[in-house]
Amino acid sequence: MNQEQVFAWDHAYYMPVFARYPIVLSHGEGPYVYDTEGKKYLDFLAGIAVNILGHAHPALVRAVSEQAAKMIHCSNLYYTEAQATLARSLATLSGLGKVFIANSGAEANEGAIKLARKYAKAIHPDKVEIITAEHCFHGRTLATITATAQPKYQAGYEPLPGGFKYVAYNDIAALQAVMSAKTCAVMLEPIQGEGGIHVPDPGYLGQVRQLCDQYGALLIFDEIQSGMGRTGKMFAYEHENVVPDIATLAKGLGGGVPIGAFMAADKVAAAFKPGDHGTTFGGNPLASAAANAVLKTMQEEKILANVTAVGNYMVKQLNGLKDAYPALITKVRGKGLMLGMQLSRPGREIVQTCMERGLIINCTAGDVLRFVPPLIITREHVDEMVAVLDSVLAGAVKQ
Ligand SMILES: *Cc1c(COP(=O)(O)O)cnc(C)c1O
Question: What other facts are recorded (predicted)?
Fold first, then answer.
């Protein structure tokens, strides 16, 4: 099938919700992907922070192939070794005692919201309010677009579920002003991803923890983008030594195989009784085996140390570009390999030109270049990326 045929079928038959770039990707290896015309790209987007081991990592390919040959799915009416193994790993890594496995980020957050409501309602029937932050992103289901305090995701889908309130991110006074005995939970990304890579001030997350304790509210950290080693720790909240009551994961967890999860402290998870929540596919042996292989490989290949080292190097290189193009780049933000470059103009054209020159990056929030590469990259890959970006920016300043 040639590229034009794929474009034609997509345009004819796929719901027109995605503004896709005009290439057809066919395969990848490590941090590189290839399109159907044979062109090679350095992938600094990794399927939006998903392919953390890069593409076609042999350990992940082997785990998925072997599990597929044994059993892909059997429903949650039965136990499987792969799922029990994953639950134990996620409980141990997070320090939160209980785990539920879903199929995506939105579903993990939806489950976290349901659990928080169930837990808080038992304390008082009015304890239902969920507070989230402006510019956050929590997913595309009705409850999670409501949690997502951005009108562009909500418009046209009203009536939205009730009980959500929004405050400015990184503003403890604003949060304090809306908290009360009715607060069920505060739900935050420890570093905002889709909103433009916003890192809160040191101490903010700890202050949020204190307010939650003061009002008997649960603290939910959405680690869907920032978790799984993306910032150099398994969970971004570890940088601040703040422990949530509930944490959610997805994106990198399966290395590309769809999976999400939420973890909760034992006393919170005890609010769920048999039948209170469920899923047909969630945590099936195939997805669980993939996540188990990802976690094992992360340890074997010392991925966290690599993220810290290569991330620090990359921040230096990106700041070098900022110094070279001060009119175009106003700030470099982020942690580990979750980095953003604030531009003084929209970024889509720069992303498009990078792609034409064999580099895949992305633009979020309109004017922030986002870098969420595979966590296995080396300094050499950073150099290769920066060289392309440099040439594209040099062209952009001339316009
Ligand atoms: C991507 C993302 C989600 C939604 O995940 P899906 O798998 O697309 O449903 C939720 N929260 C955050 C922080 C994300 O980055």
Answer: May also have succinyldiaminopimelate aminotransferase activity, thus carrying out the corresponding step in lysine biosynthesis.
Q: What is the pLDDT along the chain (399 residues), one digit of tens a residue?
A: 899 999 999 999 999 999 999 999 999 999 999 999 999 999 999 999 999 999 999 999 999 999 999 999 999 999 999 999 999 999 999 999 999 999 999 999 999 999 999 999 999 999 999 999 999 999 999 999 999 999 999 999 999 999 999 999 999 999 999 999 999 999 999 999 999 999 999 999 999 999 999 999 999 999 999 999 999 999 999 999 999 999 999 999 999 999 999 999 999 999 999 999 999 999 999 999 999 999 999 999 999 999 999 999 999 999 999 999 999 999 999 999 999 999 999 999 999 999 999 999 999 999 999 999 999 999 999 999 999 999 999 999 887
DSSP 52: T
Laid out side by side, the sheet with 32-35 consists of 25-29, 32-35, 40-43, 359-360
* Cα gap 373→376, rounded to integer Å: 8
Q: Residues annotated as binding site for N(2)-acetyl-L-ornithine?
A: 140, 279
* The CATH number, out of the four listed (3.90.1150.10, 3.30.1330.60, 3.40.50.261, 1.10.3520.10), of the domain defined by the range 3-57+302-398: 3.90.1150.10
Q: What are the φ/ψ torsions at residue 316 (nearest 5 degrees)? A: -60, -45
Candidate of 221, 251, 259 to mutate for ligand 1, largest count of ligand atoms within 8 Å of Cβ: 251
Closest CA to 358 of 388, 379, 332, 387: 388
Q: 44, 118, 127, 137: which is the annotated catalytic residue?
A: 137
Q: Which amino acid is at 83?
A: Q
CATH architecture observed for domain 71-300: 3-Layer(aba) Sandwich (3.40)
Atom of ligand 1 nearest to the CA of 141: 9
Cα of 130 to ligand 1 centre, how many Å?
18
Spell out the domain ranges in the chain: 3-57+302-398, 71-300
137 and 194 Cβ atoms separated by less than 8 Å: yes
Comparing 3-57+302-398 with 71-300, is the CATH topology the same?
Answer: no
DSSP 8-state assignment for residue 158: P
Distance 119 CA to ligand 1 centre (A): 23
Contact assessment for residue 178 and residue 322, using Cβ atoms and an 8 Å cutoff:
no
- Ligand 1 first shell, C-beta below 6 A: 104-106, 109, 137-139, 189, 193-194, 222, 224-225, 250-251
